């Protein structure tokens, strides 16, 4: 502490290697954080006015600092100017952190420990949660406390973390509502539940590797709203048209295809229903529409598109069959292989 303007004191600095040996011939650069309080030349510190400053000696990319307080006899004394006496305590806790010197914002008069700064109140609602709770003030504030990101709300992560977003999602159209997938504790391990958010559309098969923009506008609006998990054709009409246009194939795509890829359709009509690739039906049909004439419901089918039997003849032929009716369902019930009696 220096007690009047013009009073000086000499400081010395010594350079040492990793083994604690003195390094000779090192020239130090000296600086004062606030020259209006004290100046320094070659280690000689001279008081200039009331207040406190930090004197730093630097060499080879390494520096060391010491606090200097100047209290002149006619200088103003303020009970809130804690730093005038407690500069060493400030440096011990906050040295190099750019923490503001308005100590009573966080500390109370009786003790330095137990600082209780209410960031939520002074920032209009930005609560220090997750990793924010351990950041230094300088990560988000200028040296004088000015916010680097003014007006940022508690859920507006991208205002500060644009570079993180760009690194993971740049150009993908992923929405910037980061807390839908991430937590305040870490960027990694995003856990967005698409099934819940979309009322049941599970990302399965090839859908799991698609960019969001394949099915959503840049703001997250679905390109295909209201699509259920098995309503493939709502999004894949062009795929259907390319492969099946005019064929009358049903649009219940998962009957033949998987969610992993369009190629490799695997409907085995012979095994699942009755033989159409061998026997009497071989070569007698031209697409599903031959028997499945109801495009709205391909579970319906008719035998009579090819087998137009006379009603009286069929009644006579089946006179001994209990509950006989002249329709395709009954035909299939009695002739499951489609091969006749």
Describe the structure.
The structure is a single chain. With about 350 residues, this protein is α+β, with helices and mostly antiparallel strands. The chain has four domains: about 10-75, Sandwich (Immunoglobulin-like), CATH 2.60.40; about 120-180, no CATH class; about 195-255, no CATH class; about 270-335, no CATH class. It is about 15% helix and about 10% strand. The chain has eight helices and six strands. It has helices spanning about 85-95, 120, 160-170, 195, 235-245, 270, 310-315, 330-335, and strands spanning about 10, 30, 40, 45, 50-60, 60-70. The strands form two sheets. Strands 1-4-3 form a three-stranded antiparallel beta sheet, with no helix packed on it. Strand 5 (about 50-60) and strand 6 (about 60-70) form a beta hairpin. The radius of gyration is 41 Å and the shape is rod-shaped. The model has no long low-confidence stretch (mean pLDDT about 75).
């Amino acid at each position: 502490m220096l007690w009047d303007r013009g009073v000086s004191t000499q400081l010395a600095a010594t350079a040492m290697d990793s083994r604690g040996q003195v390094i000779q011939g090192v020239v130090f650069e000296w600086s004062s954080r606030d020259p209006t309080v004290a100046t320094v030349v070659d280690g000689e510190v001279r008081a200039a006015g009331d207040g406190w400053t930090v004197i730093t000696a630097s060499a080879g990319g390494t520096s060391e600092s010491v606090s200097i307080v100047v209290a002149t006899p006619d200088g103003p004394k303020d009970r809130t100017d804690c730093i005038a006496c407690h500069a060493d305590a400030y440096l011990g806790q906050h040295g190099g952190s750019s923490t503001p010197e308005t100590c009573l914002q966080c500390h109370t008069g009786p003790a330095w420990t137990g600082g209780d700064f209410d960031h939520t109140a002074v920032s209009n609602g930005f609560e220090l949660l997750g990793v924010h709770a351990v950041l230094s003030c300088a990560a988000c504030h200028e040296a004088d406390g000015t916010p680097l990101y003014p007006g940022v709300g508690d859920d507006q992560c991208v205002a500060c973390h644009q570079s993180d977003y760009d690194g993971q999602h740049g150009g993908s159209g992923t929405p910037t509502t980061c807390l839908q997938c991430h937590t305040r504790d870490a960027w990694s391990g995003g856990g967005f539940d698409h099934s819940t958010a979309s009322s049941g559309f599970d990302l399965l098969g090839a859908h799991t590797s698609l960019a969001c923009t394949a099915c959503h506008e840049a703001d997250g609006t679905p390109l295909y709203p209201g699509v259920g998990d098995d309503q493939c054709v709502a999004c894949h009409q062009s795929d259907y048209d390319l492969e099946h246009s005019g064929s009358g194939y049903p649009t219940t795509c998962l009957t033949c295809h998987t969610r992993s890829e369009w190629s490799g359709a695997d409907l085995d009509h012979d095994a699942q229903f009755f033989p159409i690739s061998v026997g009497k039906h071989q070569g007698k049909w031209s697409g599903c529409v031959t028997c499945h004439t109801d495009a709205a419901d391909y579970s319906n089918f008719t035998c009579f598109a090819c087998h137009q039997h006379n009603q009286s003849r069929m009644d006579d032929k089946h006179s001994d069959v209990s509950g006989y009716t002249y329709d395709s369902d009954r035909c299939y019930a009695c002739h499951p292989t489609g091969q006749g009696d």
